[in-house]
Amino acid sequence: MDILAFIIAAGLGFGLSCFLFAVLLTRSNDIGNNVGEASRYTVGIEYDIITNNLSDAEVKSFGRGYITEA
Amino acid sequence: MIGRCRNCTGQLTFDPAKQMLVCGNCGGTFAPADYGVSEQELLWDTKVESLSDIYGTDAPGYIDSYVYVCKSCGGEIIINGTEASTRCLYCGNTAVVFSRIAKQKRPGYILPFKLSSGDAVEAVRGRFSKGFFIPKSIRNFTPDDVRGIYIPYWVVNCFHKGSAVVSGSVRRGKRTSTVYFGRAGHMNITGLPLDASRMLSDDSSSRLEPYDLSEMTSFEESYLLGFYSNISDINYGNLKGAASKRADAYFDELVLKSVHDASSPCIHSESHVTTVNFTNMKYAMLPAWFVTYTHNGIHNTVVVNGQTGKVVCGVPWNKTLFFLLMTVSGIAFTGLFFLILRQMIPFLIDFGSGKSTTACSYLLAAVAAGTIALFSYGISRIRRVMKSIDLTQAVSIFNFAGRRQG
Ligand SMILES: [Zn+2]
Ligand SMILES: [Zn+2]
Fold first, then answer.
1. Where are the domains of chain B?
2. Complex ipTM, two decimals?
3. Among B78, B190, B211, B272, which one is most buried in terms of CB atoms within 10 A?
4. With an 8 Å Cβ cutoff, is A42 touching chain B?
5. What is chain A's alpha carbon radius of gyration, rounded to the nearest angstrom?
6. How far apart are CA B134 and CA A7, in angstroms?
7. pLDDT single digits (tens) B260-288
8. Contact A42 B378 (CB under 8 A)
9. What's the predicted TM-score (pTM) here?
């Protein structure tokens, strides 16, 4: 039982450590890695179609004809 | 004459702190807008001659190199195909290639440098001192070169139309299922700055944003005094491509934000069309400092926004320190989790054997999935940092900043 606990603990422990140090490394060494925010250049999208809970068929056909009509 | 003091004919340079042209000899200051280029000066402008025309076409070093004659001292200046101003090797004066600016579309606007070269290096040092994993030798770097370069930009407005299907997970009771959302719409994008120099990668230049373009002023050649500059060398196709790439990303970002009823939404499928308004775009010169230093024999080019002081670069990291601390903390976390789990597991197994082993195996699966997620997120972040370092150490950006005279 202890072995199972240890395996899970090691996975989680090193996973968490990897996650944390990656975040720290980004803050420390990846300087200015962002572009201007969307809100700077646009007031936002004016939606013509908003559909929730698409069926599989709708997923495939969604947006067809919307772009080409210019 | 441009570049010469009206009182004493001393050399003028643009001073970012004063926002004025300052004479290096008598200290006199002049407003750049009052120092236009005279018609006569344009007539005097010497022809730019291709080096390969002069010395024969086959020498590889001469490709895209041109000879220009310094109007201050008559010395030969070697420039590349898109340089609009550079420093003369012999007298140190800024040479503005008027014919190039006049022949190509003349920039309409310029955002004058606000940071001096000292400010730029200070900004880099300040940021480096906050980097825990930045080696000491880099924190105390000595710049090989600090160059102020006006980058040519097109500031464009465009109309974007897009449609996207977003997938997300929704919990219903104990089950999670994938749900799809459809979004189609249009938006106007205004004042988007797109780098117009092919030598500089868009990945590097876009990170210099944001620039406050409301501080732009009408272009005058005299602003270039003391700085390097390039002219635009991209075509409509390049511009449309760059605009589309940015607009697509903004559309996706906004669409994802519009989905509230599901967790971890991501784009499932998408289609876009961006129409750039080519009739009302602005050609502008935007300021950036390029600070280069050498670490372990490799050139690193840090870019600093010449208006805001935003520092852009990936910095080589102290790998020994990083992996040592990560391992130590991994062991510590493992110990902690082990203590907790040792208490919990007998209880869980008991609970499992009693009624549902499925509940227990679900829990184990969730823990395994969580572990994988932690690792993959961590590794993707580290790769992102490495990509930034690659950009900073790229030969192309080093050449953009370094292959200039002076
Ligand atoms: Zn003077
Ligand atoms: Zn000269």
1. 12-106, 117-315, 319-390
2. 0.87
3. B211
4. yes
5. 23
6. 33
7. 888 889 999 999 999 999 988 999 999 99
8. no
9. 0.89
